[in-house]
Amino acid sequence: MKMRALFGGSTALALAVAAVAALPALSASAAPAATAVTARPMTTGSGRGQNLSSTVAFSWQTNSTVWAIAAAAGAVYVGGQFTAVRPPGDAAGKGNVTRTYLAKFNAKTGKLLTFHPTLDGDVRALAVSPNGKTLYVGGAFTHVTMPGAKKAFRERLAAFSTVTGALSTTWQPTANSKVLAIDASGSSVYLGGDFTSLDSQPRSHAGAVSTGGGLLPWAPQPNGSVTSVAAADSRVLVGGYFTQIDGVTQQAIGSTDPKFGAHEPWAATIVPNRAGCTSVVKDIVVQGATAYIANEGSGGGCFDGTWAARVSNGALVWENECLGATQALAIVNNWLYKGSHAHDCAYTAGGWPQVPNPAGGNLTHRLLVQSLANGTLGHWTPTTNGNNLGPRVMATDGTRLFVGGEFTTVNGRPQQGFARFAPTPDATTPGRPARPTVTSTSAGVESVTFAAVSDRDDGTLTYTIYRRGRTRPIARLTATSWPWALPVLHFRDTGLRHGSRHAYRVSASDGTSTSARSPWSTSVKVASKSPSVSYSRAVLNSKPSFFWPLSQKTGTTATDATTHHLNGIYEPGTSRGVAGPITGSKITATGFNGRSGLVTSASQVPHAPQAFSIEGWFKTTTDRGGKLIGFGSSQTGMSSAFDRQIYMMNDGQLVFGVRNGSGQIKVIESSHVYNNGKWHYVVATLSTTAGMTLRIDGGLAGKNSTTSTEDYSGFWRVGGDNLAGGWNLDPWGSNSQGTTQPNSYYFSGDIGDVAVYPVALTASQVAAHYAANARSH
Questions:
Q1: Could you tell me the pTM of the whole model?
Q2: Which of 146, 148, 46, 162 is nearest to 113 (CA)?
Q3: Which of 344-348, 422-426, 619-623, 708-712 ranks highest by mean pLDDT?
Q4: Is pLDDT above 90 for 17?
Q5: Exposed, middle or buried, 709 (CB in 10 Å: 0-12/13-18/19+)?
Q6: CB 3.0-4.6 Å disulfide test: which of 33, 106, 427, 580 passes with 22?
Q7: CA distance 67 to 327
Q8: Is the CA virtual torsion 758, 760, 762, 768 positive or negative?
Q9: How far, in Å, CA of 366 to CA of 379, rounded?
Q10: Mean pLDDT (whole number) for 693-714
């Protein structure tokens, strides 16, 4: 487990809590089926839905950087800084075949083809005409030499036949500096780059020529380099390093008329920037009425992610806030593939917070896939090495994904400059699960817990549980995972003979391949007795200051179940009578709407306790975070002083935090996420001698040595309160969206059985309370 003071140490790796689905009884003597537990809804699918293998396909490679890729007529053209290509698997310098800045491979097999022009400068842009017969090339070169022919002058632009490979003798426009982007649409070839003139006529970083080679009147006026051009019906989008088009403020992306290039209305504030931060556009791809955009930010925490906007007006469709300088995009099979060095995706569904890499730096993912509908992350996670920014270019022939950049390995195996990913059969195998842990706290029941694993191609895996002495499995559970978000799974094996002993092991399957089975768990004796008291009685026996079951179905009073009469008040935004957390109990809980829902103390507490425990149950599927329970200076609204709080981060992690006697914020952050739509039990304690602990579902999630808190008068609040100021667990302090507390300070979900104690509960007390519920999670 990991914990840290704010801005110190590391953010714990987020782990998703998974779905659990039972296997029906396998025989008359098999154990009863597991209680079904379903995960929070996921908008992304498995790798089979995405239909690309994460295993790199056979392909020749280059000896240096690939900057541009285009596919046509069964071939893939690759341009960049390389001077040779070599077969797959060959080490650098071995098997080299000369190809100077431009090469052609078979798109289906990855084999080298005979196309062999020689350029005298690097290639930065490639595009194919709509009819697939012409390849347009842009870059820094000034001459092209074909085999057996004389050197031909081609100033940073050239065209080749995709049928014969011949250099066009009629298409000869010129640019006075580097060409970085080309998009061919209809009879127009749109260009972007560093140039300020085309065919000796003024063109500020953007211009167009006809398919016959003549200069066209399209002439937008961006005030900086253009790195991407995308023609879309009645608009041509341009992106790059500019802040204005035609003198109109337009940060890094804009829309232009396709004939003359006049600036057209486009949402001016789509790309978020702030003082000390600049975000530029590196790539644009269009499908239908939507443009998908890749951004690179300069400045700590500046916007580096992807977003989607309406082509017609720039209206935002969705925004993915992963930090990590997105360089390239491609759409394959209605999924958006991206190249970046994503390292902080804490505020993206399915993402991860900033996490140190044991090898140095931070955990990064350079190849990812996203939903076109909302930008959430999918389950395709091959890896590359290379520069700090990530792969530089992506392209597709509609079936395969082609990736280029500075990398020398893919998935840890040699493959330099260029990689090909194809819809081949699933060739990956899930990792081997670790040894399960087993406890028995109820008569005839053993609870099996184990960490799930991941698979580079698949999000949903099936886990088969075996009990020693049986040849057939006793249950199967399903769970969604990513390499950075591994679920923790629970199975309740019931109907066992009292006093018998059992051990368990687990395997994982993606539907095609199955992992090795985990090691056997320790053999555990089955309990002969169940907890002797109900959950409510176990709580009351520990003498809380107040105990709000939150079970009232009418009225505004949240009745204290102790004799202290420290009642609460139901504020608007709460809904009574939702099913409660306690197994077999008809006692209900309360729902909170995530906007205003609150239960607050009816009277002020004159001095917040120094030693205390906060206990409760919650259930949610939110991805906006929010405060579950805390102490604040105001009865309603936003408190000016607030701590002694348990809140949820956007990704579902729980945080327990206080301000110590010196006013410093001290927190414990859970390693798992808990927004899977099932009830969870949380206890946060502070002892003036032993420090802070956070326990979830009966287990220790973290601890630290903080033994003091601030002294002020206030109110206990359930469901929401202020989280502004220093309660920012993002290591950047702020990102493009501002500080990164939860997006919502109010909690959306159900809460029940909230208790506060004037002492720190012991581990055995917490375990006894949790066991008294006797439920399967």
A1: 0.84
A2: 162
A3: 708-712
A4: no
A5: buried
A6: 33
A7: 11
A8: positive
A9: 13
A10: 94
